[in-house]
Fold this sequence. Notes:
With 522 residues, the protein is an alpha+beta fold.
Amino acid sequence: MTKIKINITIILLLIIAVVACTETGNEPLNENQAPETNIFLFPDNPDSINQQKSRLEVHWWGEDPDGVILGYYFRWLGLETSWNFTTSNDSLFSLPIGSSDTTYVIEVIAVDVQGNFKYDNSVIWNGNDIGAEPFIDKNGNDVWDEGEFYFDIGMIDPTPASMKFPIKNTPPEIEWNKASVIPEETFPVITVAWDATDLDGNESIVSIDLAINNLDLAVELPGNTRLVTLRIKDVDAVEPEFEILINGSEDRIHDKTLTGLKLDDFNRLYVRASDISRSKSEVQSLPDTSRTWFIKKPKGDLLIVDDYISGSEAVTFYNELFATIDNGNFDNRFDVLDVEATLLPFPNITFLETIKLFKYIYWYSDASPSLELTSSITQKFINGGGKIGYSMTLQEPSASYSFDLTTIQSFLPIEGFSDVVSRSFLFPGANAIPISDSTANFSDYPQLRTATTISYVRTYIPNTLISKGVHNLSSSQINGKISLITNDKELFFIGLPLHQSDAIDGSVQQLIEKVYIDEFGM
C-alpha cells in the first residue's frame, strides 16, 4: 500500500512538471526591439528652422530599449539615394548651392548591435536592400574578405528621424590685401592681391572679376586666384592691354588680357568675386576714391634708378647729364624711378617686371643702396638682354644695414674688397685713372677726380674670369681698383658717386657716353 502511494506521488509530480513546462513554453519570448532615432534641435515645426548657410553641422542620437546603439545610417533626400553608415553622432556637411535658395532634408536611422554574427552582403530595411554591411577594407579591394572587421547590423529604426534645412546662399566677400597699396604714379606694371572669403566655404567662389576703369570689360579669373601681376603687353599699342600673370608667374599668363588701360592718365582697378550660384560680392576699387593712380608710358629704353636718399642735387645733376649726352639725343627719352619715394607693392615681382620695360639702367645710390633689390633683379635683367650701370658706395655693415660679401657678389662680379673697411671720408682731389697695362687697356676712358668729400669709399678686387678693372683710385688715403666692367659689356660699376666726381669738366659725361653708347650700344 505504501509503495502504491509513493508511485502515485511520483506520477502526480511528473504531471505537474510537464504542465508547468508546457505553460512556460507557450509564453511569448521577448523579441529584440528596434531603436529610436532623434536629430538634435528637432523643432516643434520642422518648417520653422531659420535659413542656414550651406556648411552646417548636424547632430543625432539613438535610443535602444533593449540594447546598445551600433551606429547610424544617413542620407540627404534629393542629393543621394544610397545610405551612408557612421558610428559618429554628428557630421559637418557642405550642401551644394543652386541658383536660388533651397531646402534640403536629412534622414537618419539608428542601428543596434544585435546582429546575426555573420557578414551579410545585403541589409534589408523596410523591405529595401540598403547594401552590404559596412566593413574596414584592409586590402583596398572593395570586397569584404574573411578576417576583415565588419559592423554586424542588428535591428534598424523603421521610422527615420528627419529634418528640413532651408539653405540660404551667402554672397562672397572680397577686399584688397593690405599689401596692395598703389603709389600715386607707376609705369604700366603693378602687382596686386586680394582676400576673398565665403561663409558657404571658400571653395564655393568660382570666379574673380578683374577690370581696369570699366567693369564691363572685366576678365574672369579662376575662383582661387588671389594675386596677379599686370604687365603691359605693348607700350606702343593704340589700345594698350595688360597681360595677367597669375601669382606673378611667367608660367601662368592668363589667356585673356585686361583692356581699358589708359597710359599717361589716371586709372583704377576693380575686383569682384562670384560664387557657384553666381551671387556676387560688392565691387572693390583700387585705389579708392580718395586717391589716384597715374600710369605713365615709358619715354624710351633708358631708366635712371634714383636710390639716393639725401638732397635734390643728385637728381638735378643726372637729369641734366643724360639730357645732354650724345649732343642731346636722349633729351626727354629717359625716365626716372625714385625707389625711395615709389614704394611698389610686392617689390620683388613688380620692380623686376617694371625694369624689364627698359633696355638700359643707370642706378645711382649713396652709401645705403637697396641691396635687396639689386641682388634680386640684376642677373635676371641682364639675362633678359638688359644692360646696367651702377654708381654707389657702401657703408660698413651694421645692425640697421646688414650685408656680407655674398650679398655684393650676387650683383657685382668681384672677388672681394681691397680694404677690410671703407674709408670714412675721402677728401677732394682723389683721381680715378683709367687702367692701361698688361691686364687691360682702357686708355680711351676719361680720368675722373672727386670734387667733394665722399663717405665710405672702398676699392674692389674684380673677378677676372668675367670682368676687368677700368679705373684705379689714386689718393693719399686709399688706392686700388674703383671701377670695373664685365667682359660681355653688360654691367659697369664704379664705387664713387659720379655727381661728386666731376672736378674735371666734362669727364663724367664722357664716361657715361663711353659706357652707354660705345660699350652698351645704347
